[in-house]
Write a structure and sequence with these properties.
Distance between the termini: 73 Å
Largest sheet: 2 strands, antiparallel
Shape: elongated
Number of helices: 3
Strand content: under 5%
Radius of gyration: 23 Å
Order of helices and strands: EEHHH
Helix content: 25-40%
Number of strands: 2
């Protein structure tokens, strides 16, 4: 009983899909240009760097403290933006 070819890269079965169609973008799908892929990679690297900085702040026991006001950043904000260094008030420019 043949359940289709096993894809060499992903190891999954490709039932009835012609080999020449595997991995090609179909109608309505978009491939990233080199510029878009580069921008995406830069954003991901920046996000990783921000998370690494947050880990350092955890070690230094300064995580969750607004760098402008010195007050605690609300947990809701930290859940939404784990690497936040400013409270929403400070980010919007209303910190005093």
């Amino acid at each position: 009983m043949n359940h289709g070819r096993k894809d060499k890269i992903f190891g999954c079965r490709t039932r009835g899909v012609p080999r020449h169609n595997i991995g090609k973008a179909g109608k309505g799908e978009k491939r990233l240009s080199k510029e878009e892929a580069g921008r995406l990679a830069q954003r991901q690297m920046k996000f990783i760097q921000n998370l690494q900085a947050a880990l350092i702040r955890i070690e230094n026991k300064t995580y969750g403290i607004c760098r402008e006001t010195g007050k605690l950043i609300p947990k809701e904000r930290l859940r939404a933006v784990p690497h936040a260094t400013l409270s929403i008030e400070a980010k919007q420019g209303g910190a005093k």
